[in-house]
Every structure is written in structure tokens, then in C-alpha cells.
Amino acid sequence: MSFSIAEAFAPATVANLGVGFDILGLALPAPGDIVVARRRTQPGLTITKITGDHGKLPLDPSKNTASVAAMKVLQLANRLEVGIELEIHKGLPLGSGLGSSAASAVAGAVATNALLGEPLTRQDLLEPALDGEALVAGRHPDNVGPCLFGGITLFTRADIGGLRTLPIPSDLHLALVTPKVEVTTAQARAVLPPTIPLHALVHQTGQVASLIDALYRGDVPALAQAMSSDHIVEPARKHLMPFFDEVRQFALQHGALTVTIGGAGPTLLAVCRRADDAKTVAQAMSDAYQQRGIANLAHHCQVSLQGAVVTNFQ
Ligand code: HSE
């Protein structure tokens, strides 16, 4: 069976979790991007409308993460005779550290697959979504993975065989703040060291192992400790995040166990053990930016078990 219209929602995600650069990520319940796919009579793919991007994203289907992912779905499903129009509704700010480009790619892949009557499995959609994401942020599955599959994901390598879904401690609560400052992934990757010393490798691998061990034991303080032990990426990047040290200190004073950079930033992610603490910390981080004249969006939530969903088809 196939349909004339299908719509998909793909949620925000937070990559890295401190020490797990390019391999760890988690899904948030909201916000997210919506992609609507409609059949058209001529084969080929067009983007008819993009909202919420302040005119910044390309309508050229070869340059947009959603349409590149959608095209790859048509190829893998062997349905290149199908013509599709896409509408992209950005709920995620660009360059925010909330997996904006991954969400559009995932929503594009999921909506297109739904339009075709789901010839591909969810696992099959990883490659199309990675192809889309690669246009903007490089080919790494730390946002695309949790966006497609929900929860906390580890990729031991950048294909579906590397996917591990990790346990989520029930008392893991998150507070997030996104200052209205754009940090592109390209910018945030350009400041990273090209090589690292052996002692840094030893430390980092130990901390990634501690993080995974903490998740399996449901130990949120140990998780927070591991997340805050990144000696490679955070020190190189934190100057791109306005008032990083001050806002982190404020969050710690208000009950956060740790604060790390969300993905490539500038979103900051705080870890808490109770919903009340997460609410207080989100407000505190928001106030800290506000007092420094920086508009921001803050919220608190738990990890979402659900990745992208088909929200409508007919
Ligand atoms: N792991 C990536 C980074 C996430 O930190 O650069 C953003 O694409």
C-alpha cells in the first residue's frame, strides 16, 4: 500500500554526552522538526516550502538534509519513478546543538518511507538519514541514531551494525538551555585538535567506559561524573559558548550534578536526579543568560524512548 501524503515528526537530540564524541547521543521528547511528503505526478523531488528557518535553509533538493535523505530512501526502495514534494517545518533552531540537521534528515527519510507504504525498516533508514546529515555536520550517527531509534544510543561504528541502545536510569532528569547564538558544527569541529596525546586517549576511553557502566548500573551521579570528564573536546570548544563557565557554575549551585556542551553547542545540558531540580536548574541557566543580555530557551525533561514518528498519512 502507498499513500498520497505522509507527515513525520523527528525530535531534538543531544550528542556526545561529554566524553562520547561522535558516538553517544540521546533523544528528547521535544521540540522537533516536521516533514510533510506529498506525491506529485512527475518523478523527482522538490522542496515546496520551509518554515521556521528564517530563510536560511536551501530549497535546492541536492543541498537540503531532508531531501537528500528522502532521495536515498527512493533509491534504496527502488522507487525512483515516484515524484515527491516536501514541506519542511523547522521546530529546531539551526546551529543550536540540538541535532537540527539530523532531525530534518530523519523526518525526511521517515515521511518518504511512510509515503511509499514503508518498504524499508527503521534500521534501513539509518543510511539515508546519515547521507542527509553528512551534508552539514559530517557522517556520524550520534544525533541521527537517537533521533531514529529514541533513548540513549551508542554507535561502536558508523553503521547499523554498530548500534547499541543503552539503559536509561529512571532518575535521570535533564535541564537544557539554548542561548540565541549560532555555533555551526563546522565551526565547532574546526577548533578541535587534529591529534591527541596517548594519555588523553587513555583518560577518555576510561571515561566512556565509566559512562556506559553507570548507565547499566542506573547510577546518575557516576554518569554525571563521567560526562564531565572530557579533557579533549570541551576545553577546545568552550570559548565558543558564551559565558560557559559562569552558567555552568550557576547550574551547579542550583542542584545540577554536571553541565556539558550539548553536541557542538551552544546548548548546555545539565544532569539532575529529580524533576524539581531539573526545573530549578533550567530556570537558573535561563536567568544567568538573561542577566547577561542573551535571549535563550530553556526546558527540562527526561530522555525520550521514542524517536521519530509518522504523525499523519492518507
Ligand atoms: N558529535 C558532533 C560534534 C555533533 O560534536 O561535532 C554535532 O554534529
Low-confidence stretches: none
Rg result = 19 Å
Question: What is the makeup of the main sheet?
Answer: 7 strands, mixed
Give the ordered list of helices and strands.
Answer: EEEHEHHHEEEHHHHHEEHEE
Bound molecules: L-homoserine
Task: Give a written overview of the molecule.
- With 314 residues, this protein is of the alpha+beta class.
- It has 2 domains: 172 residues, 2-Layer Sandwich (Ribosomal Protein S5, domain 2), CATH 3.30.230; 129 residues, Alpha-Beta Plaits, CATH 3.30.70.
- It is built from 10 helices and 11 strands.
- The strands form 2 sheets. Strands 1, 2, 3, 4, 5, 6 and 11 form a 7-stranded mixed β-sheet that branches. Strands 8-9-7-10 form a 4-stranded antiparallel β-sheet, with helices on both faces.
- Helix 1 runs antiparallel to helix 3, helix 2 packs antiparallel against helix 3 and helix 9 runs antiparallel to helix 10.
- The site of L-homoserine (HSE) has 13 residues, from helix 5.
